[in-house]
Amino acid sequence: MPFTGYDLVGQKFGMLTVRCQAPTRAKNAGKSARYFECVCECGKVVVVRSDSLRLGKQVSCGCKKKTYMPQVRTKWTPEDHEILKRLAHAKSRCLCETHVDYKNYGGRGITIYEPWLKDPRTFIEWAKYNGFKKDLVLERIDKDGNFEPGNLRFVEHQTYTGEPRDERTGYFIRVGNQNENVETWGSLYGLNRHKLNEIYETEGHDAAAAFIQRAMDYLNACRNQI
User: Fold this and answer.
1) Last residue of one domain, picked from the residues 73, 91, 111
2) 89 and 67 in one domain?
3) CB-side exposure of 131: number of CA atoms within 13 Å?
4) Is 134 domain-assigned?
5) Element (H, E) at 91
6) Which distant-in-sequence residues (6+ apart) come within 8 Å of 134 by Cβ?
């Protein structure tokens, strides 16, 4: 899933290890809260709100008495956030079994360099040292290899070859039960194909699907007003 705010995937809080981001849920006053799917040391899988993890309000599935474990907040720069988006996308595809692209990554045994999972700051340091720029895409050199030093590089969009797609029609994106290529989505809702491809490459499948969904909702709302 696309990275927004705190990326907790791969981190451990007490007895809970964060596996992937869960669907956002509504809070009071129309606000939404981010949730994460976690695996407890006892083996049980639970869904926990992000602030409950970060503030130490929940440190197990309930099998152990809750204890308060304050977490030290790390201050990220805007550039750090951009770098962490790349890591978050890799985590979603490699660690979250419900992700649409899991079968092409984690399902094939592709993993992420362990030190980057334990401490995202090590990934930030690696990225800055290896030529990170906001307009570049993170690419695996060996498509059967892992996300690890020596097999990753930052490349321009036009040379990116990391995801299977048709050069003319673009990526396939699923919205609800409908799975279409970028060219078809553009024709249906008047969307820019190059913009959709860019969103997919920089923010991931789910961000592109959300972009299409907003266009669908807007068009339906306009039709209802007629």
Assistant:
1) 73
2) no
3) 10
4) yes
5) helix 78-95
6) 79, 82
89 neighbors 96 (Cβ within 8 angstroms): no
Cα–Cα distance measured from residue 22 to residue 211, given in angstroms and rounded to the nearest whole number: 19
Query: What one-letter code names the amino acid at 21?
Result: Q
Residue 172, pLDDT > 50, answer yes
**Mean pLDDT, rounded, for 190-202:** 81
| Res. 1: pLDDT tops 50 | no
Do 42 and 88 lie in a common domain? Answer: no
Q: Among residues 171, 181, 180, which one has the least CA distance to residue 203?
A: 171
Q: Residue 42, Cβ neighbours under 10 Å: how many?
A: 11
Q: Please count the other Cβ atoms lying within 10 Å of the Cβ belonging to residue 148.
A: 16
SS3 content of the chain, % helix, strand, coil (to 5): 40, 20, 40
Same domain, 114 and 202: yes
* Residue 225 belongs to a domain: no
Query: Count of domains in the chain?
Result: 2
- pTM score of the predicted model: 0.45
Q: How far is CA 183 from CA 35, 159, 203, in A?
A: 33, 20, 18
Check whether 112 has a pLDDT greater than 90. Answer: yes
